[in-house]
Amino acid sequence: MKPHQRYGRLWAKGLCAAIMGFSLFSCKETKSVEKSADPITLFHGGTIMTVDTDFSEVEAVAIQGKKIVATGSLEAVESSVGKEVTKIDLQGKTMLPGFVDPHAHIMTFAPVFLATENVGMTEFANTEKVLAHLKKMASEKPKGEWIVASRWDPAVQDGVEALTFKELDAISTEHPIFILNASGHLAYVNSKAYEVAGIPADVENPEGAEFVRDESGKLNGVIKNNVAFMQIYGQIPAVANLDFSEAIVKLLNSFNSFGITTTSEFSLGATMQSAEEAQVLFETSKRDDFSARIRAYPFYTINDKWTEAGTKMYDGNALAKIVGFKLIADGSNQGFTGLQRDGYFDPHQHGNSGVEYMSVSELMRIAEQRTKEGWQLTIHGNGDKAIDNILTVIDSLAKKGYDVASLRPRIEHCSILHDEQIEKMKALGVSASFLIGHVNYWGTHMRDKVFGPEKVQLLDRCAAVEKAGINYTVQSDFAVTDPNILQMIETTVTRTTYKEPDYVLAPQEKVSVESAIRAVTSSAAWQLMSEDEFGSIEKGKFADLVILEKDPRKVDPHQISEIQVLETWMDGRKVYSKE
């Protein structure tokens, strides 16, 4: 067995814990570039947005080796770098800093990316088409071979609310079938999958998870929480024998096509249930085909193992680095497990106010331990009660004398925010990272089922936090949504929804295109404790760049997602070209 296949087996055992102001052509003084053996490349002839503090534009950028060595007017840059350069004329195209996805799950979902069929909203408009596709897969596979798919979401893809034995056994009783919900918190299997995994009809529910049963008490094929469904998923050969390193690299290569040069892992260690996962990441980053930076956050479920391993903030290297610690306060709003002050809007959810994944006392125990050690804290919070709990913990830390603001605590997803919570965030130095796909893909579901037309106005309040002077970002939470940065920018600016394109969710929360660009470049770098390395086009930073077909500020905002990514450069080398 190859070493990285062994990691694949460990991943299969451990995934259960994981899936839970504008100045035109400003020219700063440019000094001569130091001599180096590396060739110099000079870009000019287009719109070059630096996304620096002033969101200034420059006429030219020069890179040498892995770094940006000069920016400014074409004349000044040419003077500083000399004549022995390779010039690239942008021909009117637009250059930006490489895009940054500040919350994703690369290690967790790289195996899913390779080992499962995508039956999500970007591939199939409704569940009827999903089922037809699965039926076709069954007709083409030998008997006994697994059918494995992911990203199905009944909140967006019209049809049944769950895939039960009724739907999946109708596809096949000769192939075990496993379907992962887009949230990563639910799975659906057929009866053959239970049989192959050796799970009996009287299986007991693990703590915090459920093998769902029908009204007669019989298993129905729906499984809540990965603690339970991993007992089946871990049996799939394609998962158990996966080359983990290869899966990571292939996923990063695909991210480059979206203009991404930095992404993230927000449940490090959970895929293998071991601190060894950090070393796998660091070793993988040494590969020549490693094409995007990863900023990683160890996961709280193996807190003691991280301590035993002696893991510290900033362990790693420029390509793969640990920059904070991850906690989880609740679940998913669209899955009705986000922790709410009040119950959900849907009458079928009467009495349900979500799930408290970690109590305030448990959050406080680990948060204080890690704060004392100097870690940045990033805490998943979707429902308003969960955000209350998070702010209670951070406030308690501040009252104990910890300088929490200097450690840049983040609330992940930060979905429902009341005005007084925004005030507390500002006072405590807490920033927000919004899963903006909640607006685009689930906006109408949030309005009609989850929150109702009034409370949904509190969803992903980009403009409100910006007005309060709070740093914010937008993110994909891959694989909950695809890492389509331009689509994320468009949604942040327009607030329109996938199912009702004319519906604008909370129009008062629209922001400018420049603000949205910051949210996936300079602000994202800041949240990832890496603003000195990337996030803007400035001398001394890594040559992480993206070239776009058009300037996002100069097209119809509803067409930003249609702009083509032409090239992506990371560490001074071209890692993607549309050609």
Describe it for me?
There is one protein chain. The protein contains 21 helices and 23 strands. With 579 residues, the protein is of the alpha/beta class. Strands 1, 2, 3, 4, 5, 21, 22 and 23 form an 8-stranded mixed sheet that branches. A 6-stranded mixed sheet has the order 7-8-9-10-12-11, sandwiched between helices. The longest helix is centred in the last third of the chain and has 16 residues, at 384-399.
Helices and strands, with pairings:
Layout: H1 3-14, E1 40-49, E2 57-64, E3 67-72, H2 74-81, E4 85-89, E5 94-97, E6 99-100, H3 106-115, E7 117-118, H4 127-140, E8 147-152, H5 165-171, E9 177-181, E10 186-189, H6 191-197, E11 210-213, E12 219-224, H7 226-233, H8 237-240, H9 244-256, E13 260-268, H10 276-284, E14 293-298, H11 303-309, E15 320-322, E16 325-328, H12 360-372, E17 377-381, H13 384-399, E18 410-413, H14 419-428, E19 431-435, H15 437-440, H16 443-450, H17 452-455, H18 462-467, E20 472-475, H19 485-494, H20 513-519, H21 522-527, E21 545-548, E22 565-570, E23 573-577
Parallel strand pairs: 1-4, 1-5, 6-13, 7-8, 8-9, 13-14, 14-15, 16-17, 17-18, 18-19, 19-20
Antiparallel strand pairs: 1-2, 2-3, 5-21, 9-10, 10-12, 11-12, 21-22, 22-23
Class by helix and strand content? alpha/beta
What is the helix content?
25-40%
Q: Strand tally, please?
A: 23
Our estimate of the beta-strand percent is 15-25%
Which radius of gyration do the C-alpha atoms yield? 24 Å
Number of helices: 21
What would the keywords be for this entry?
alpha/beta, 21 helices, disordered N terminus, 8-stranded mixed β-sheet, 6-stranded mixed β-sheet, 20% strand, 579 residues, 23 strands, 32% helix, single chain
